[in-house]
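Appendix C. Worked example: TetR family transcriptional regulator
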Amino acid sequence: MVGKVQKKREDLRVKLIDIAEARVIAGGISAVRARDLAAEAGCAVGAIYNVFGDLNDLIMQVNARTFKRLGAQVSAAVAEEQGRPVDQLIAMSHAYLHFARDNTPAWRTLFDLEVSSEDDVPAWYLEELQKLFALIAAPLVRIFPELGREDVILMTRGLFSSVHGIVLLGLEKRISAVPTDQLEHMISLVFNHLSSKNSKS
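Step 2, the predicted output written as structure tokens:
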């Protein structure tokens, strides 16, 4: 009996994640509403909270899938680019741009989810983010071999924030952004200039 109850609970868990993921892909975080999820899953609203602590918990599960898809796309870009480390950073950044452009609602949901502090974020969620940072850090160490571990971490987060900002402004077509079709070139200019400055110093 316990086994059947556990299986039913797990089946509902997976079903709710699947439904929420489809809604996030189509409309972002605002498309995930408890009543709509329950109606589509064929369960009571309360059943959702028997499986997940709250909707944030459910959306984190969706974001984990998005992180894995993003990581796979960025990893593939790195694998195809075996040239200079700066070229790997450019390839990763372009892959990030393409993922954000092609999956905008899901990509935005990665950052639209509100958490009060890292203490509220599950360890597995932070691990997915660290995998992405590790991809960035690897070529950085080759470009800046003199940097200590802490500085590499800061540089990694700084570069990620820079690329993310360029992509975000570009996709939102803010007045301060460059046209979308020039984003790749802008990112390449930033990284090539960064690399050339370091090689001359």
